[in-house]
Design a protein that fits this description.
Low-confidence stretches: none
Oligomer: single chain
Structural class: alpha+beta
Radius of gyration: 26 Å
Helix content: 40-55%
Largest sheet: 4 strands, antiparallel
Shape: elongated
Order of helices and strands: HHHHHEHEEHE
Strand order of the largest sheet: 2-3-1-4
Number of strands: 4
Mean pLDDT: 80
Strand content: 15-25%
């Protein structure tokens, strides 16, 4: 009896084996999509892509099957798709590589390896997503103040109490110069104290508009 880690394609190729490879490729993509959907809010189209991509990769690799000319043509087609795509987030690209690797393993007939790799990689992705990161405390603060308030040092005591660092990145006038709109980048000491921080700020700015947002994740792009 052959080992489960041996390729199922060593004794030839048939429609049944092809469908079995596609089944395992789709299963691996589904596991990766489920893991990513639990880790973060992902769009439906991206999750569908994670399921379909390993199936497509499996078919492409089986189609090439040692044909150099076909392989070059496929590589050129994938290059065109890549250069017409915008840079994505690091986690999204990692998930795409995960399902492509699973698809390649299925195309080679190593179904058990593909399944085990997908489960372990998805589990690792979920585990790492639970580790608190310092970047999760970085926020953007948009605050409106009246023109009578000298804003240069008006909130220094609150920033010292609730944040580790802060920086004024933008200031502009509004409402015919009667209001100032200030944009800060800051790092909260404790994200759970965000509401208390906002309450203290609105008492200082005359209960005008406030907004506390998670900092943009531009640094994750690849």
């Amino acid at each position: 009896m052959s080992s489960i880690f041996d390729s199922i394609l060593t004794d030839g190729f048939s429609v049944g084996l092809y469908l079995l490879c596609l089944l395992f490729a789709g299963l691996c993509g589904g596991i990766a999509a489920l893991a990513l959907s639990r880790e973060r809010a992902a769009t439906r189209s991206f999750l569908i892509s994670l399921v379909v991509l390993p199936i497509a990769v499996t078919t492409v690799v089986l189609m090439v099957n040692g044909n150099v000319g076909t392989g070059i043509a496929v590589a050129g087609a994938f290059s065109l798709v890549r250069f017409r795509s915008a840079a994505g987030k690091a986690r999204d690209i990692s998930a795409i590589f995960l399902v492509m690797t699973a698809g390649l393993a299925c195309a080679a007939g190593y179904l058990a390896i593909a399944l085990i790799f997908t489960v372990l990689a998805s589990g690792l992705m979920l585990l790492l997503s639970r580790i608190p990161m310092r970047c999760e405390r970085f926020m953007e603060l948009h605050i409106t103040v009246p023109e009578s308030l000298h804003f240069a040092h008006a909130f220094d005591d609150l920033f010292t109490q609730y944040t580790r660092s802060w920086q004024l990145v933008k200031a502009k006038t509004s409402n015919m110069g009667s209001l100032y709109k200030l944009d800060y980048k800051l790092e909260l000491r404790d994200p759970a104290a965000a509401q208390e921080f906002l309450d203290a700020l609105r008492c200082r700015n005359g209960n005008l508009e406030l907004a506390l947002l998670v900092a943009a994740e531009g640094g994750e792009e690849l």
